[in-house]
Structure formats: C-alpha cells, structure tokens
C-alpha cells in the first residue's frame, strides 16, 4: 500500500546517513515538573473513567468501623484515636492498597513500556501517580473525619490539620504502595501486600494503642500511617501540643521522601529488564 | 540509520514450580544482524515466539541484550538505553497505561511526556486525531472502544511528538480496512515529508508484502533471510502452492492422492502442497477428474507468498503466519 519509494525521499534517503559518523540530534527530554503535572492530570482523569468505586468503599468502611467502635470506646483519648485512625485508614486504603494494585498490574501487563519508551524522568511517573492517588483520598478522609467528630462529639476546630496530614501520610503510604507494586514479582503478590499493608493500618491505627501488647505497639511504631494518626489525634485535645504534631508530621514526610525514592528506584528497575 | 550487530539474548531456564512446568533456556535472539536504512519501512516477519518482540524490546532500550550492539542514528542504544526514547516512538502491543484515559488525553499526555509544551502537545494532538479520523471519538475512554479503534488511538499517541524512527509492534491488529488505510497513509505522509523510518513487527503475510520495503524473516531468534518481499519470493519462484480442501476426508483409496500424502502439510480437511508448476498441473488434473473429484470441496493454485518463503527457508513453525 506504500506508494513512496524509499529512494526518492528527502535527503537522498537510502545512501545518506549510513556512513555519517556524526550522531543525530536527540529529541527533547521531558522536564520533571511539566511531565509530573501531565502524569498527575492523566491519573486524576482515571477516577472519572474508572470511577474508582473503591473510593466510596473506603469511606463506608471507615464510617462503619467508627459506628462499631462507638459501643466499645468510652470517649476521650480513645475516641480521638478511633476517629483519627479511621480517617487515615481511607488514605491507607487508596494510596497504599489501590496504588500497589495499580502498579502491580501495570508492570505485569507490560503497561510500563509505554512510560519507559518516553523521555520522562522516572520520578515524574511515580510522583504523578502517587500524588493522584493521594488526592483521591481527600473527599473520603474529610467526610470520615467530619462524621467521626460529630459521632463522638469531638471539636471540628482543628480539622484544617488534615491539609497537612493527607499529603504527608499520603506521600508515605503512596510511596510504600508504589514500591510494593513495582517490586512484587507477580501482580497477585502486589495485591496481597497492598491488602496486608491496609489491614495493618486498620488494626494498628484504629484500635487504641493503650490496649495493645508491647510487641504490637512496636509494630505500630514502624508503620508510617501511625504518625499521621497520632498527629491528627493530638489536635482534638483542648490544648494541642503543636510541637509533637509537627514532629509526627515530619516523620510522615521523612518516610514519604524515602519511600518515594525507593519507589522511583523500583520503577527504573521494573522498566528495563 | 539503525545498525544491529551480533545481538543475542538468552532467557534463563526456569525451574518448575507447582503447576508450572520447568522451561529450558531459550535463546530469544541469536546473533541478529540488521541494517535499516533511513526512510524505509523495514519489517520483522515471523510466527509467534520467533523473537520479534524481544528483538524490538532490545532496539527500544526496554531490554538489555546479553551481547551485541545497536546503533540508531549514531547513538549506542545498548550503552545509553535512555537515548532510545528521544530518537524513536514505540507502539507496543499493550495499551494498559492508556486504557482509562480518553483518546484525546492519551495523545496529549504522551506528547507532553515526549517533551512538548502544553500548546504544542495540544496542537499536535488535534492534528493527529484529525488525520486518523479519531476526532469524533476523542472524548471517549480507550477502554470503551473496540480493539481496532483502541489500537488506532494508541497509534495516534505514538505519532504525537515527532520522532525520526517509528517502531510499531503489530500496529494494525484488530483494525478494519478503513483504520488500516489511515495508519499506512499517516506513515507514508511522514516518510514523504520528513523521511521517517519505520520498523514494523508483523506476522501478517499480506501486510508484509504490500507495505514493506524490506523484510527480515525471523525464526527461533535468528534472521533466516533479509531482502525485499519480491526478492525473497524469487527464491521460491520455481514453486506453486496448491491447496486442496476435501469434503470430509482425503480419498486415500485413489492411488495418485495416496502418493501425495507424504508431501502435504495437513490441516484438518485442508492439504497444502508446494510443487513445481508442471507437477502442480498434473495434480490439479488428477483431483479435478476421476474418482478423487467427488471428495474434493475446493482447490486453489497460487504463486508463492512470504509464507512459502518462510517455509522454504526452513522456518520451523508450520502455522503462525496470518494470511489476511
């Protein structure tokens, strides 16, 4: 069907270029921020197409847990822990669990080839996707937090702290989710790891820490979502200790930086085999 | 513009697990040597598992070869795999990365990730979608499109952000004739205007014969021939392909038919024979007259295709090349 013979092409086509030792100019490289924005926007639009019904599942799950726990906890510190834990659980569900599944499937199906054959920095792909998944958690987390505050009679005054908790806990958990999804040898394993991570966030984050044995408390301290939960829970008190809130958020941020760096490394490793 | 020398990739043997049998070591590409010239449509033809995709993955920097070199437009892609993405556009077989995006956003995002700014990406997106006739479905997600339309949308994404080399892995799979024509005229336009080179992976014999300038025939990781389609067919010019389709079973009680049996490739009711023209005439005379005719459903006589070339060159797979 091709009608153009190769030897009438511009530049003398066939003969030219074979012997030229001079390497041809390369196409432009995509810069970090513009490509991050492009990936973020594309990922966000998936929510409309895929409708991510699990976003609603995440919220219902957290609301359900709070209703159940109402009969168990007796207000005060425990109620604060339950509300904060349930809110951050939404972040864990979406950013950790769903992102691990997404990257696991993308890797297994060869979808990473698309990004790997574009001149885009690996960090842009990982951060763009992680950012989008962290953004998906915003409505669910806010709804859960407001509902919880009303249910347990906690003050709504400091809910603005979610503006820091969601991105920082989101970064830590999304980085972890992306790394798990990209490192897992099979997509089923990625799904399993994502689910386990979320179950850990559920059990260790929502249940009040005072009732746990020492070993479980240690595990709780190792989980990055814990620091998001603690930071949020501290703000319910009459005189929040802002230094400790900041300290907890800093841990989230630090874990976020490390886990996103690991995820970027894992992406590079998965993209070229 | 693209020189491949001694390219070798071996997949290690896999130990068997429960439910998964062990596989021996597989040499996916074996000492491959190719020269692709600027502005040509160069094809890789072979059945499934011949090593076409593995070869392409090594050319696009997606996979490191064990040995050998790949030079594209003067750049060593084995040593600097990241440069491949700035020289070529790749259309792989999978669309999972784009599936949940709209056609328009898939093309625009791909353009931006190819280093275009927002305005250029949008302008090129609009031009390419218009050129391929995708504008009416620009707002629909790829997931909701038919296989052929989805493929065309992925092809559109590959064209946004121009590259001197297009690597297309079975680009027209599932497409209707209109979409196929859109693909080949888009390729031709870029070739005529900018001297774009195309590396095409296909197992479709007809497509290979009609669109390719030159073709390398791959079998079990080796290049067993490389020439123009016409040049390759001349190698088997002395042969004619005879296809016989029997109503139920071959009438083996007819001695002339029974005598042919050890020379045919049997596929159900279909017998395929490759014969000298004189012999072919005799066979057709035999089966269209006399006792065998009652058992015959249909027959065709054809000049050799690239499939015959593949088989004549010692291609191992009896099936796997598509003739449509």
TrEMBL record, chain A:
Source superkingdom: Bacteria
Residues annotated as transmembrane: 49-69, 81-103, 124-154, 160-183, 190-209, 245-267
ABC-2 type transporter transmembrane domain: residues covered: 83-264
InterPro entries linked: ABC2_TM, Nod_factor_ABC_transporter
Chief location of this protein within or outside the cell: membrane
Protein's recorded name: ABC transporter permease
UniProt signal peptide: none
Membrane topology per record: Multi-pass membrane protein
Keyword Transmembrane: yes
Pfam family name, one: ABC2_membrane_3
Keywords from the UniProt entry: Membrane, Transmembrane, Transmembrane helix
Protein's cellular compartments: Membrane
Organism (species): Streptomyces fimbriatus
TrEMBL record, chain B:
Protein's cellular compartments: Cell membrane
Keywords annotated in UniProt: Antibiotic resistance, ATP-binding, Nucleotide-binding, Transport
SUPFAM superfamilies on file: P-loop containing nucleoside triphosphate hydrolases (SSF52540)
GO molecular function term, any single one: ATP binding
Domain ABC transporter: 2-245
InterPro entries: AAA+_ATPase, ABC_transporter-like_ATP-bd, ABC_transporter-like_CS, ABC_transporter_ATP-binding, P-loop_NTPase
Primary location group: membrane
Family matches, as Pfam families: ABC_tran
Protein name from the UniProt record: ABC transporter ATP-binding protein
Origin species: Streptomyces fimbriatus
